[in-house]
Write a structure and sequence with these properties.
The two termini are about 15 Å apart. This protein has one domain: Rossmann fold (3-Layer(aba) Sandwich). Helix 3 runs parallel beside helix 4. The relative contact order is 0.18. The longest helix has 19 residues. It is an alpha/beta fold. Strands 2-1-3-4-5 form a five-stranded parallel beta sheet, with helices on both faces. Strand 3, helix 4 and strand 4 form a beta-alpha-beta unit. About 35% of the residues lie in helices and about 15% in strands.
Length: about 210
């Protein structure tokens, strides 16, 4: 059995495109992309969903809480689910919030810290490192009521794919630029519609089959 850990934010959690700030709806288990991935891969694979709305790469959120810091939880998560054969890592969208004032290269370097943590974790089979598929999140779409929160983030988001690729190469991770296959929803500019979850799951499944071969 191949164990896959999907570590990410609200789009890994399966948050529905929001209509207002208190909208915390979530797509069903087979609609959100990790669940759809489980169906795509079929027997022989276990998919563990670890998506947290608001999760950053390594930044304490002064408003939403320090526990949104992805690095803060990553090591515990890896040890909790070990041994992990493969994992997907898709973070960075929340780092685009104006309160953090960071650029695409800074976000990519932050992802590099996460990749280094995974590489040193010994959370894979026989105390090795899990193999990683790094996914660059797609650019933001039309920001509606989240416009102030993500002020300036739309232009920055367009640079994440190019900034992430060198980090994947540096740490020997597979790489997928999600912006080449899916789009975020114009409902809130941040989250994915069901059809995009399905597209992402198929793309990820294809890469994982190659990695697991």
């Amino acid at each position: 059995m191949t164990t896959i850990l999907c570590f990410g934010d609200s789009n890994t959690h399966g948050s529905v495109p929001m209509r207002h700030r208190d909208d915390i709806r979530r797509f069903g288990p087979d609609e959100r992309w990790p669940g759809a991935l489980r169906k795509e891969l079929g027997a022989g694979f276990t998919v563990i969903e670890e998506g947290l709305p608001g999760r950053t790469t390594l930044r304490d959120d002064p408003i939403e809480g320090v526990y949104k810091n992805g690095l803060w939880y990553l090591r515990a998560c890896l040890e909790s689910h070990r041994p992990i054969d493969l994992m997907t890592l898709m973070l960075g969208t929340n780092d685009l919030k104006s309160r953090f004032a960071v650029h695409p290269l800074d976000i990519a370097e932050s992802v590099g810290v996460l990749l280094e943590t995974i590489a040193k974790s010994g959370a894979g089979p026989n105390n090795t490192a899990p193999r990683v598929l790094l996914i660059a999140p797609p650019p933001l779409a039309k920001l509606t009521f989240l416009g102030d929160m993500f002020h300036g983030g739309s232009d920055k988001s367009k640079g994440l794919g190019a900034a992430y690729r060198p980090q994947a190469e540096k740490y020997g991770a597979a790489f997928l630029d999600a912006g080449t296959i899916i789009h975020t929803s114009d409902t809130d500019g941040v989250h994915f519609e069901p059809g995009e979850h399905a597209k992402l799951s198929k793309a990820v499944a294809g890469i994982i089959r190659t990695m697991a071969a």
